[in-house]
Design goal:
Blueprint (H helix, E strand, L loop, with lengths): L2 H22 L10 E6 L2 E6 L10 H12 L9 E6 L3 E3 L13 H20 L4 E5 L2 E3 L1 H8 L2 E5 L3 E3 L10 H8 L4 H10 L3 E2 H7 L4 E3 L4 H13 L3 H14 L4 H17 L1 H11 L15
Parallel strand pairs: 2-3, 3-5, 4-6, 5-7, 6-8, 7-10
Antiparallel strand pairs: 1-2, 8-9
Helix pairs in contact: 2-3, 3-4, 4-5, 5-6, 9-10
Length: 293
């Protein structure tokens, strides 16, 4: 067996031995990263990696998530982002210990401000962002799902905004929920704290698809790979335009999107796609914002 192959087999054992040695010596083992970022073939996977704290969106977790979302985001190699989680809870929302009276108002404000920044950042990124949900998503965790462009959930997943039950109404999650769900469904969730099942979430539009747990990875990658077949520059233009027109009245939206489609035709990839269709060949995307000369 090659040396590289032997090392791949030995690496988990070495890591385990190092942790054990650190414990015996009284030295703390290095902390696990709160989020883990991996990327291959255009798809970036960001894993919420604090299952012992139910993947709570602490200030540190939000900062780590923001860093992973923004990392080399303009690269042509990045085509889609998937957010998933380790453990049985996708995300339990804010870390309530950070919101106790032991911390001052300035700290509380910082937590909510960076949370809002991350949620709005997701929709401003030039690539689609998919939530891969396998478990419970509550409060700001439910907000995270609602903020993603696409959400694929396993049948065992549930979604709730139970802040009202502990005296902290989910006002910031309500921003994303109110834009994803019918008003009366969102308000029932917010007023009662009762969860939606995965099937109810699908029926009301909070998630895009619901699949058996053992099909979750396959379905999420199927969507991701389909996205990777398209031009990054065209998708970026389309995503930005979609969210922009959603806030406009009908006449303004049509006026704006008419201009965007005209601009789309001036892109190198806009013309490449049409030429490839006419010539009955597969398009060769540049993934750039360059204009066709």
């Amino acid at each position: 067996m090659a040396a590289a192959g032997l090392w791949r087999l030995r690496r988990p054992l070495v890591a385990a031995f190092s942790k054990a040695a650190a414990a015996e010596s009284g030295r703390p083992s290095p902390p696990e990263k709160l989020t883990v970022r991996r990327q291959a073939e255009g798809v970036r996977n960001i894993l919420l990696n604090n299952p012992s704290k139910r993947n709570a969106l602490s200030l540190a977790m939000l900062q780590s998530l923001r860093e992973d979302l923004l990392h080399d985001v303009k690269s042509k190699e990045l085509r889609v982002i998937i957010i998933s989680a380790e453990g049985p809870v996708f995300c339990s929302g804010h870390d309530l210990k950070e919101l106790s009276s032991e911390d001052d108002v300035k700290h509380h404000s910082q937590v909510f401000e960076i949370c809002a920044e991350v949620m709005t950042l997701i929709q401003k990124l030039p690539v689609p962002v998919i939530a891969k949900v396998n478990g419970l998503a509550t409060a700001a965790g439910c907000q995270l799902v609602a903020s993603c462009d696409i959400a694929v959930a396993s049948e065992k997943s549930q979604f709730a905004t139970p802040g009202v039950n502990i005296g902290l109404f989910c006002s910031t999650p309500a921003v994303a929920l109110g834009r994803s769900l019918p008003r009366k469904v969102a308000l029932e969730m917010l007023f009662t704290g009762e969860p939606l099942s995965a099937r109810e979430a699908l029926m009301h539009g909070l998630v895009s698809k619901v699949v058996p747990e053992d099909k979750l990875e396959e379905e999420t990658m199927k969507i991701s790979q389909k996205i990777c077949e398209s031009s990054k520059s065209v998708l970026a233009l389309g995503k930005a335009t979609f969210y922009r027109q959603m806030t406009q009245d009908l006449d303004t939206a049509y006026k704006m999107t008419t201009q965007v489609m005209t601009d789309n035709l001036t892109l190198r990839d806009g013309q490449e796609g049409i030429e490839a269709f006419i010539q009955k060949r597969k398009p060769v995307w540049s993934h750039s914002q360059d204009k066709k000369k």
